[in-house]
Write a structure and sequence with these properties.
four-stranded mixed β-sheet; alpha+beta; six-stranded mixed β-sheet; 25% helix
Length: 197
C-alpha cells in the first residue's frame, strides 16, 4: 500500500498560484485561500489619493510610513495572512517580519481596503480578521454602497466603533496613525468610479 503524501500547506499553494497568476492577490483568511483579481484603474486611483493625503499630513518615514500591499500575519489560523491594499505601519516595519513575507500585526497602525468584486471579503471577513489582529484602524472604501467606513477600537473579533461616512462628509482619521489625515469622502469615492469615455 502506498504511503500517503503529506498535505501541502496552504501557504505553499498560495506561493505556487502567485507564480502562475502574476498580479492576483492571494490571502488566507479563516483557513481559506482567497484570490482577488487584478485591480482596475479606479481602485489604484483611490489608493494614490489616500497615499497622497497621508504624505501631505506628515506621515514621512520618520515614525510611520504608508505602504501598499504589505502582508500582515493574522492570529485567526496557523497560516492566515492578509494583504491590505494600503497600510500605515511603524517606520521599523522591516524588523517585524515573521515569515512568508508577512509582518507582525503589532506594527500596523491602519489598514485600508478598496472593495472590488468580492466586497463581502472586505466588509465582513476582514473586519473579523483585522480586529482579531488588534489593528487599531480599519478603513474601507466601499465603492458598491458609496460609503467610506472607519472602524476603530478592536475587541476580540470585532471593532467597537464603526462609522460609515457618506459623500459630503470630511473625515479625519484617528491621530494614532501618526498624523491628522483628512479625507473628502466624495472625492475618494469619485476617484473609485470608472472615468466616462
Amino acid at each position: 500500500m502506498p504511503t500517503p503524501r503529506p498535505a501541502r500547506p496552504l501557504t505553499a499553494w498560495a506561493d505556487l498560484l502567485m507564480e502562475r497568476n502574476p498580479g492576483h492577490r492571494f490571502e488566507i483568511i479563516d483557513g481559506l485561500l482567497v484570490v482577488t483579481p487584478l485591480s482596475d484603474g479606479p481602485h489604484a486611483r483611490v489608493l494614490a489619493d489616500v497615499m497622497v493625503a497621508c504624505l501631505r499630513a506628515g506621515i514621512d518615514h520618520s515614525e510611520a510610513e504608508v505602504l501598499q500591499k504589505v502582508a500582515v500575519w493574522l492570529p485567526t489560523g496557523p497560516e492566515d495572512y492578509a494583504v491590505p491594499d494600503l497600510s500605515v505601519v511603524d517606520a521599523d516595519v522591516d524588523a517585524h517580519m515573521v515569515e512568508n513575507n508577512c509582518y507582525e500585526p503589532s506594527c500596523f497602525r491602519m489598514v485600508l481596503e478598496v472593495t472590488s468584486e468580492n466586497a463581502d471579503l472586505d466588509l465582513r471577513h476582514k473586519v473579523r480578521a483585522y480586529a482579531a489582529a488588534a489593528i487599531p484602524v480599519y478603513v474601507i472604501v466601499d465603492r458598491g454602497h458609496q460609503r467610506l467606513h472607519v472602524l476603530t477600537d478592536p475587541a476580540g473579533d470585532k471593532y467597537e466603533n464603526h462609522r460609515p461616512h457618506a459623500p459630503g462628509e470630511i473625515v479625519t482619521l484617528p491621530d494614532s496613525i501618526g498624523a491628522k489625515v483628512t479625507l473628502d469622502v466624495a472625492e475618494i469615492l469619485e476617484a473609485g468610479r470608472p472615468k466616462k469615455r
